[in-house]
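User: If you would, consider this record:
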Amino acid sequence: MSANKEQKQLIKTARTTGVWYLMMAISGILGFMVFHSQIFASDNPEQTLTNLIELESTARIRLFLEFAIVISQALTAVWFFKLFKENYEWEAWTLGIWGMVNALAIMISAISIASAIDIANSDVIAMKDKVVLIQVCQNIISNSWGIGGLFFGLWLFPMGYIVIKSKRMPIWLGRVIILGGIGYLITTVIQYTGIDFGFNSFLILPATIGEFWMIGYLLIFGIRPSNR
């Protein structure tokens, strides 16, 4: 395969990666930041139970968006591996595997959302038992996303490393992505040490900037030709 044809194929792969990454971002924003609070009331399982019964269709939209996050995260991981495996096999495997762990963490959340819907609409479970079970489901959902922050951060390290080492994307993009990975790890550790730290959201800001920058670069430019 000629260098020009190979580059065109890589750009196509990069843009496909960007599409999956964008789908993951959109489904994540809609699912976790828009629809989640409409159903799951923090520290109020009684209200959550009421919402699951009275707003069942909205709850199922929330569930389907969680499906979309899982699928698009898995496909993003696979396509990143495909994009980088030729010259950075070890790093690409790490990126792909850690990205798949992200999908598995979110899948646990999806299982818990589905279970909560089933429990709320069951005719054989007593109301007081439903409240307890809904609270358990809420805790699992919250901790799937919370502890999942470890790998939400970790998969950014090989991504940023490849960007910096290959120089096929802006070097500062790689640096910002790695900084975002560090922020995710610190935020997760602080959250589970029980420390009340009001600036946690700022620690993951570099990750947000870096990931949207990555999405935009993949979609618009794809990937630079190799200097090798």
